Amino acid sequence: MTLLQLLLKTRSRSKPSEPTHSIDGFTMIELLVGAIVAFLIIGPLLGFVVNILNDDSREQVKTTTDYELQAAVDFISEDLSQAYYIYDPDQIEEIQGQLPGDGEPILVFWKLHRLRNSIPITGSNILPSQCDDNPGQCNDTSVRAVVAYYLEETEQNSIWCQPAGDACPKRIVRYIAREKLERFRGTGVYYQNPQLDNFQQGTLDISNSDFDIQESPTDSFPDVDVDPDVLVNYISDFSDPDSNPIEVSDTNDSVQFTIKANAMRRIDGKKTGFCETDEGKGSAYCPKASVRVQGLVIKAN
């Protein structure tokens, strides 16, 4: 009996105790109050961050538009600085049938286009395409070129129509056609395309034509058939005839023009005409640049 009692006593001591269950925690009301407080704190902070990001994005768009506008004005100004005859708006209407493009030509002029290291020196037997491989055997030369700038509408399926919207942004495109490279100036004897590098090839044959820019700059104007290069996109206005018309000097050797960009069109596809609205006039999102350029002054003998 003593042994049995000892075994029972030992068993009772080794029996694990029952676990205790905690009943502490958040009530539904406490959770609801905490959620409301978190919303009141995080909501305004989130809105503030979103506004900062949107403002930064808009500033980047405006800065990019300003930069592209100034770059386009500088490029056109440099182009015009080599012009020796600039057509006024009335003359452009007379020659528009010979110009490429479906839009409205804004600037049309003749310039001297420089071809570096392209004409073999007298006595040399090499071809213009071989000038780069024969240093000192060629000189620079200039050829006549006609340049036309257009303000064009962009097609809906074009890569230039971004972001998609009701209407695509306008863009400025440039056409340039150069006369063919003559063996000797004024002879009408030309190099053939296989004898030339791509940058030396021309499309205008005007040496033996009836076109005479001194006598009549619009008569017998040569047909220009070339593809355009896009200069700048997101343009609102390129010298509007009513508000900012092209001004060409009486001597046809200087011009003043204005370009206005539309930065809002880069942000919102529905803001194509933003700069023409009362809200857009004078807005920083409609930057404008005006410039007067003096071309080459060629004195008649």
Structure notes:
- It is a single chain.
- The protein has 301 residues and is an alpha+beta fold.
- It has one domain (51-210, 224-294).
- It contains four helices and eight strands, in the order H-H-E-H-E-E-E-E-E-E-H-E.
- Strands 1, 2, 3, 4, 5, 6, 7 and 8 form an eight-stranded antiparallel beta sheet that branches.
- Strand 6 (247-248) and strand 7 form a beta hairpin.
- The radius of gyration is 37 Å and the shape is elongated.
- The mean pLDDT is 85.
List keywords for this structure.
4 helices; 8-stranded antiparallel sheet; 301 residues; single chain; elongated
Give me a quick take on this structure.
With 301 residues, the protein is of the alpha+beta class. The chain contains four helices and eight strands.
Note the topology:
Blueprint (H helix, E strand, L loop, with lengths): L1 H13 L13 H53 L2 E4 L2 H7 L8 E17 L17 E15 L17 E9 L50 E10 L8 E2 L5 E8 L2 H4 L20 E7 L7
With helices defined by DSSP (H or I, 4 residues minimum), what is the helix count? 4
Please state the average pLDDT score. 85
Overall shape: it is: elongated
Q: Hey, roughly how much beta strand do the residues contain?
A: 15-25%
Strands, total number: 8
Class from secondary-structure proportions: alpha+beta
Instruction: Assign a percent range to the helix content.
Output: 25-40%
Largest sheet: 8 strands, antiparallel
- Write the H/E string, N to C: HHEHEEEEEEHE
Number of domains: 1
First and last CA, distance: 147 Å
Report low-confidence residues grouped into runs of 5 or more. none
- What integer value in Å does the Rg equal? 37 Å
Which oligomeric state applies? single chain
